[in-house]
Design a protein that fits this description.
about 65% helix, mainly alpha, about 120 residues, flat, 5 helices
């Protein structure tokens, strides 16, 4: 990891903890605010620990982009949790065949960048 990349990653880590410190839940309830602050801190610690040994520059860049996207979306919608993607349910596809494969491929392709690591950790 280059020194510039390292500074960028550490800056994002500090930014997340500053956001968590100032976070107010949308409902305004103290219990909800505390719960969301803890979620933000735990999610950051978990994902940064998981990715601390990543050495591939492309993968590092992808993780940085995901982090920035999750920060912006969280601040914009005032929701610390990742926003789900909305795709048609797979209940209409047969259990096998082209339709099912096509829907699975569509789901994989359409997954937003801010949800890439969410399924791996949760």
């Amino acid at each position: 990891m280059t020194p510039v990349t390292r500074q960028e990653v550490l800056g994002l880590y500090r930014k997340i903890f500053r956001i968590a410190k100032k976070w107010q839940s949308a409902s305004g309830q103290i219990e909800e605010t505390i719960k969301e602050k803890e979620y933000i801190k735990n999610e950051a610690k978990t994902l940064f620990q998981k990715n601390k040994n990543v050495t591939d520059p492309k993968l590092i860049k992808q993780c940085i982009e995901e982090c920035e996207a999750r920060i912006e979306i969280g601040l914009h919608y005032n929701i610390p949790y990742p926003r789900p993607i909305h795709l048609p349910p797979m209940g209409l596809a047969h259990k096998q065949g082209r339709t099912l494969r096509r829907q699975e491929k569509l789901r994989k392709i359409s997954k937003p960048i801010y949800l890439k690591s969410h399924d791996e950790v949760s």
